[in-house]
Amino acid sequence: MDTVTRRRFLVASGVVGATALAAGVTAYRLDDLFATSGDRDPQARTLVLVTLYGGNDGLNTVVPYADPAYRDARPELAYEAEEVRRLDDEVGLNPALAGLHRLYGEGRLAVVQGVGYPKPDRSHFRSMDIWQTAEPERPGTTGWLGRWLDRAGGDPRLAVSFEPVLPPLLAGERSAGAAVPVTERKAGRGLPESTMAAFATGSPDDTPARARAAACFADLRSVDEMIREVRDAGDADAPEQEGEATPATATGGARTPLDAQLDLVAQCVEAGVATRVFSVSLGGFDTHADERQLQEILLGQVDRAVAGFVDRMARTEAGRKVVVAVYSEFGRRVRANASDGTDHGTASNVLLLGNGVRGGLYGEAPSLTDLDDGDLRFTTDFRDVYATLLEQTLDTDPGEVLAGWRGRLTGVL
Fold this sequence. Notes:
9-stranded mixed sheet, 3-stranded antiparallel sheet, TAT_signal, DUF1501
């Protein structure tokens, strides 16, 4: 991301102050990131945060199939007991989550139930601000991982986003993380490789503006080359399945943006870069109509990308120290709407995955009958999840980042 774009995003987000803006506007190339290979403590853990934008329906992700109130509230959307991938005699996973169901059986998936915050807000932007700043009463000017970055030394390469823009959660008071967008940019037809290489090559007599333009173009070419290498390697390693074609996605290809982001995270972890936090995301979960089919497609993308990543990480010592956390800004309302969808709700699930995770169900499942104006009452404060990740994964006192918060999840890491 170029300096101007990054600065505009940070200013527009309203979640970063002038000090962090001045400290964090430098554009980092992938070469800068991989230059840190070997610099990290081999015992250090890595956090990979997966954001599902749009408000994923938690009740049709972790399905309370045995509760008659579930089917009564959404008869057309509800899954029958024989359709779900059972976790126990009460709840099961969405049929699209075959890979995550396998990981649960292997003890590598923890499902934290009923996660939310006091006085929930049903606005996408407000609720996401709350989740990313970890300040429910009044979203502040820094992200919770940005505040961690301030205390970890402030090097942007310690907290990297493989999203189109830097998410507010990586903006600190004195520093900000690094953003490397995962996109494929194509030059106009007829431009040979030599011309494209020339665009990316600086000259000693360049003006500062031309030198900056050359550096930015070189950075974009570096990103594209890395993505091509990762995808080629993934295609070569993928087993062929007779009679089953690779499904296309809404983005026009067989490999989703989340696949590409997690492939790059895997490359970084395997190279031993200094990065301790990676942020990736997938959008499209605002399912107000025809939810069941759409959500299954999206959850299928999540399942393939995340399960494949967790399996890949299990092959190396560094990978076995990776913890993946999957969350959305809110769940959906318990009762379906008139369009075979669901509207913005409140509490939902957080998924934690990895070899270092103690799998199982955590927290209390919210009641489907004792509701707050038609919405689930949260049973686990999301700051308990963050505090656990800060303490057990990032080796940081959560109180310094979460304003003295004392809650924790017990036994999950």
